[in-house]
């Protein structure tokens, strides 16, 4: 299929060891088509040779079967690939190990997991260094884990799909841009020798709301709903429903400037939608470029949108004529871009790489490592709004072909490993080009699950709720407790906070493969919790757990951790309550709301500590609590490296730099912070208004910053903890630049001092 042009050079394996110098004319003709990567023509020629030539040599038959199987594999014709590889395995015992791998893969893509497991086992025996043999042998002992969350999804085959391949959607201005082999230009279009299909272009549908609403009218027809793992109202399977006839919704050519006579797509966009990076064949000034062995590689190109037109098309600096780079995906903050390449030094066929992107400049690509990349092919990356990574792979354990996988990243590392997205997102065929929101509640992906051969289509998905009722009761009376807080903890970290209704019930939607803890909190009761796991699946549509609370005289400590710079809740903060009498500790990690809750026994002093990397540790002391039930609410503020705080009351008289009395009070606040955090280092940043020459203003602001520094030093702060810098009029905050008429009050707003945190401990 066209999307597999990225792995043009991964022909390798035993084909390189076939040294038969064929004398047969039919075999010579077939080999010529094979060497030219014209796999459709090669299949016809090899089948004709095997059928017609009765006097062929055994070595010629083996060569033809090996290359025929490989050609079917490249065309994604898994049924015929299985047939040919089966014949090879039956006839020969000295086959190269890759034959068993390809046979195992084609069996899995045809849903024959037990047979595939046996072939993976044989592959593992012959090729011990490739972990796929061992991993898949174990994985296919029980494939039920791939279906744990399947009942929670509904899929919809989209009416933008054409009779040609349509795949790899990407969000763009309320719609999606996608890749298609359709041709709506009305002129004769060149075809790709590999599979005799048209070259790829980028197309656009302007409204995702039309595409994702089940049963809505989409210009010319409704979506086709597919329920994961079952049948629809007419008794159709998912494949049958997806194959139902539906009118084609019109899609626009995305850009006549970017689309050429060669392949374009997949693509990605920066957050402001004004820069695109897209995949294209190696071309220069309209002419195709080739590698030293005569293959047109893939390259990445960027373009910017000016006045509604895509202009300034240029290559990224890490392209090469000798290997392919493609399938780009920007991180949500545009700080980096993921992409795919078969460049030397990787772990397998194609690997995922990441490259820094700063102010339009590219860094050096870095391989994402063996936690992400395998001996197989990793491709089609996508970073969600949380910065976590989705991609497709045929190297990680899956249902067959390419499966969609998910990796939660921390500092660029998949610290929880790689997770299979499961059915029905994944199938035994190829599933790829996945995009979604940050909670994976809806999105789009592409798959060739209907027929499997040159049949990529785009699907939307929507995840429905697997409901869990959390019931909170009084342990003594058994009555429901209304208005109790239920803290949801997922995999050890705080998440949402829910409140029970008059029936003592709170409801959530649970996710598969997740360990939960639910903590119920109510004044006058001891905090209590219950654990719940979805590592095993229940067929019940609604589940429930119960929490019983005992009345107590303990004190409840609760609060919210916020960042001082903007007073927003801080997530990922480790909050610890330590009993200084018996040295026991309670610890939680804050979630999106920054909240925490603890029980505090009376009669002991306590210390509450909040810690997070690159933030100053915050400690609060509590003296002995009396034996009386109460709630202590204590919000904690964190100071982080890089935070800039404006000292709003530090102003200076015109052309002066001494500290005014009103400014001294604000500096005393900074003094208190520095004394509370003795390892904190700050930069004092002073600014002027725009009046007077630039050089004078820079010198004046430096003097002002120095005056603030001296004030703090005189009051006991070590000079090495302070840096003074003047910025002059370079950072005017209210538009009062040279030539603008402003009042004295407006000018004074620019005569200000800030402090920036440089280091904490």
From TrEMBL:
It is found in: Cell outer membrane. InterPro entries: 6-blade_b-propeller_TolB-like (IPR011042), Bact_OuterMem_StrucFunc (IPR050330), CarboxyPept-like_regulatory (IPR008969), OMP_bac (IPR006664), OmpA-like (IPR006665), OmpA-like_sf (IPR036737), TPR-like_helical_dom_sf (IPR011990), WD40 (IPR011659). Keywords: Cell outer membrane, Membrane, Signal. GO terms for cellular component: cell outer membrane. Transmembrane segments: none annotated. Residues 1-22 form the signal peptide. Residues 639-761 form the OmpA-like domain. Pfam families: CarboxypepD_reg, OmpA, PD40. Its main location: membrane. This is OmpA family protein.
